[in-house]
Amino acid sequence: MPNLKAQYFHLRNLLVVVTSLLLSGCASMQTPQGGPKDTTPPKILSMTPKNQTRNFNAKKITIEFDEYFKLVDESKEFSISPEQERAPILKVRSKRLEIELQDSLEKNTTYTLNFGKAVADINESNVVKNLSYVFSTGNEIDSLSISGNVKSSLNDEAEKDVTVLIFPIERDTLFGKKRPSIYTLTDSSGNYKLNNLRAGSYKIYAIKESSGGGDKIYQQVSDEVGFLKDPIKVDKNLENINLQVFKEVASDFRVLDRKLANDGIITIISNQQLKNPKITVTDPAKVDVGKYVHFSKTNDTAKVWLTDFGFDSVKVAIQSDGKILQTLNFNRGRKDTYVRDVTITDNAGNGKLNPFQTYTLTFPFPITSADATKITLLEDSVKRTTFQLVKDSTDFLKYYLRYPWKQKRTYDIMFAAGTFTAIFNAKNKEINKTFKLETTDSYTTLVYNVSVPDSSKNYIVQFLSEKKDIIKSFPIKGNTKLRFANYPAGKYMIRVIYDENRNEIWDTGNVKLGTQPEKVWYLKALLDLKPNWEREDPLAIPPPPNE
């Protein structure tokens, strides 16, 4: 006869062990650790009716995705072409997107629903780019296409996420006024393709919208634009319809930013590069006396230092070529106080001075006097007194310290409190600087024997950093020899501007006038200049692109 008591105790012990294991497992549960960031947008599982449906007569379209999603700026991103008076309604239903058509459809017509960047996943906002749905109410679907590439006109770099759009020629007047219904976005290589187009003539544009944009309506103040002047006739698939985007010069003067800071400096930033710029205090007129004005190299930013603050409000006139463009008002309270910290910056970056440059001191305020006796110069801890302190002849923000600097020496400079006196009798606190003179072996020289394709035209040869910052520009006409001397060893680039109007600067384009930017050419090879080199190469400038 079975031992029931033994079986009972065996079963009870087994339950205790299992329960303990379960509890132990629960107690050791950890918060899930973060894995790789999700970079994959939702994937389409199905479209009902199917994409590219002919003889379409449905009132609702359903697109199912593999994950939950959200709609982002659908009013900006979504469009239907041809447009309808009553726009379709988009609804999110779990993992499905439902599009309800509110208006009647034209017969024998191809419709394209373009979602732009409207569909994105819930967590990481990964966008389903260039999502579209196409159907025809007739037996045929428009199947023509336009494709090409978009680059920056000056930097010659591919432009991604730029909107390429077309308007039928009879509706071209809507550019910049109304959102387009036929558009696409460029990929990471700047390539684009517009599909399902009907035969006809179109104007084509590219818009690189500033951050915060996205309405696909060109805003001259903030966006870049590219276009082809002449319409393109679409009667077959068109390839290599390439565009270059550029920033237009603003047609109307506008002040972008203006402020009277707590250090008493007035800053004015405009949207244009002014010609022969001038700032005048018109009211009270006496405040104009003794003021200091400093313009940026591009003449679009001005800093103004007033020496008379006995006013409640002041009017400042901005002039270009003798013409007053705008008058600004600045207000202050009688009890307002200003803190002026006379700091000193120098050109010994990372504690090293370029042996081909003069040691330069730059200040935030106009300096009215300097006392060289309050400067202590140590060369390897030995005091030196044979230096010279020289004021810049034109720039009231700069001084130079001249001395026969030597390599392999350490220089310590102490500027005692009150060495420099700025406007309003503001003085510097004690400031110490330390640097060494870099060896000349760290520098390089490049010589180019330049030949031009047309000696009757003008060119600008530019020496650029690897990041395409301009280091040196040479306006030239005809064959010549150019010398880029004594620059730090490193990687550089060469850019040539075809200076059509001979004004020695790169000129941008204009949509209204139909003018394109001046063309540029890059020497494709990146120049890797070694230390202590003097290299001489030929530079054959080709004819302008597309000639």
TrEMBL record:
The keyword Signal applies. InterPro entries: Carb-bd-like_fold, SbsA_Ig. Residues 38-137 form the SbsA Ig-like domain. Residues 1-29 form the signal peptide. Keywords: Signal. GO terms for molecular function: carbohydrate binding. This is Ig-like domain-containing protein. It comes from Pedobacter agri.
